[in-house]
């Protein structure tokens, strides 16, 4: 298993400076933003996604930048909402997704990461509507519209496109979108096709009351884990006990929130992360742990240093194998 990073963390640096920092830190893979919410900051330094699709020379420069530093590209990420009721936003994010797939194919990268999207509550609504309860009854009507009229037809079509280009789409199960937990990952995968799976990010599961280790054991045997993010979450025991974990306060209001994202190792112990790697390997995943830093209490350097310390202990660099006993 390799340790990687989502390069959106270094949006303030040009691509080569970012890659220098990443390589010097001992990281092995990079995940580039390709549009939608993460943007495409570093790919823009080479002319942008469209240029990279069309220009073999630009692609070779990108690959050389990575390979010369001992880095591999683990994924292209286009976290967006192609199901958005605002047709302009939906089209922009759809185009970003399709272009990321085309670029991934040409780069020899097998995974594109993103979100499932969230439609409106009905054909005349203007904003996405994330349903979190089964009553009043109209909420179930909304879910029927979102899944059967919008999401499943859309992702069936995209599954065909993905298969044509030999790329998998790893959905990050994220609250606010129709795929937000393991059950909805599998619901969409079974309805739309096996090119669709998940970018497993434990940070979004803890505050929903999901134990990520159990989620890995549910998703892994179904062949649904394509990529993994390494990000931690700390639940505040006082605020959570008063207000629960559904929290719409700003991520910057750290003292008032029921939970916050933390750097790896600051929400859960070294032992938990050891168990996470072990459980991933047990179900057949041995690809990448891609660090995503969103810790409002730590600088980039602090958060990355702690995450690497924790993950390097958890990840055994040599492949597991039989034990050989020394003989005299």
From TrEMBL:
InterPro entries for the chain: IolE/XylAMocC-like, Xyl_isomerase-like_sf, Xyl_isomerase-like_TIM-brl
Keywords tagged on the record: Isomerase
GO molecular function, one term: isomerase activity
Pfam families membership: AP_endonuc_2 (PF01261)
Record-annotated Xylose isomerase-like TIM barrel domain positions: 19-304
Matches recorded under PANTHER family: HYDROXYPYRUVATE ISOMERASE (PTHR12110), XYLOSE ISOMERASE-LIKE TIM BARREL DOMAIN-CONTAINING PROTEIN (PTHR12110:SF21)
Name of the featured protein: Sugar phosphate isomerases/epimerases
Source species: Chthonomonas calidirosea (strain DSM 23976 / ICMP 18418 / T49)
Taxonomic lineage: Bacteria, Bacillati, Armatimonadota, Chthonomonadia, Chthonomonadales
């Amino acid at each position: 298993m390799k340790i990687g990073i989502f390069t959106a963390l270094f949006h303030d640096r040009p691509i080569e400076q970012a890659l220098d920092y990443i390589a010097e830190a001992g990281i092995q893979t990079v995940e580039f933003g390709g549009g939608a919410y993460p943007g495409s900051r570093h790919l823009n330094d080479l002319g942008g996604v469209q240029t990279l699709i069309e220009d073999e020379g630009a692609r070779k420069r990108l690959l050389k930048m990575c390979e010369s530093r001992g880095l591999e590209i683990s994924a292209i990420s286009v976290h967006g909402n192609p199901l958005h009721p605002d047709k302009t936003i939906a089209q922009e994010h759809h185009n970003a997704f399709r272009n990321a797939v085309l670029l991934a194919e040409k780069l020899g990268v097998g995974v594109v990461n993103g979100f499932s999207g969230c439609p409106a509550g009905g054909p005349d609504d203007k904003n996405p509507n994330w349903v979190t309860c089964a009553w009043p009854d109209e909420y179930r009507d909304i879910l029927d519209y979102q899944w059967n009229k919008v999401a499943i037809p859309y992702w069936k079509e995209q599954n065909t496109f993905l298969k044509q280009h030999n790329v998998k789409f790893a959905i990050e199960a994220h609250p606010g979108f129709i795929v937000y937990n393991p059950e909805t990952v599998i619901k969409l995968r079974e309805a739309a096709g096996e090119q669709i799976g998940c970018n497993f990010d434990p940070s979004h599961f803890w505050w929903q009351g999901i134990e990520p280790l159990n989620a890995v054991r549910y998703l892994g045997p179904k062949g649904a884990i394509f990529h993994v993010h390494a990000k931690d979450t700390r639940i505040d025991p006082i605020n959570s006990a008063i207000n629960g974990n559904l929290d719409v306060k700003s991520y910057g209001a750290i003292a008032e929130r029921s939970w916050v994202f933390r750097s790896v190792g600051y929400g859960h112990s070294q032992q938990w992360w050891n168990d996470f790697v072990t459980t991933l390997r047990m179900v057949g995943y041995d690809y990448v742990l891609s660090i995503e830093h969103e810790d409002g209490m730590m600088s980039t350097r602090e958060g990355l240093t702690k995450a690497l310390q924790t993950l390097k202990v958890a990840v055994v660099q040599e492949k597991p194998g039989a034990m050989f006993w020394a003989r005299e």
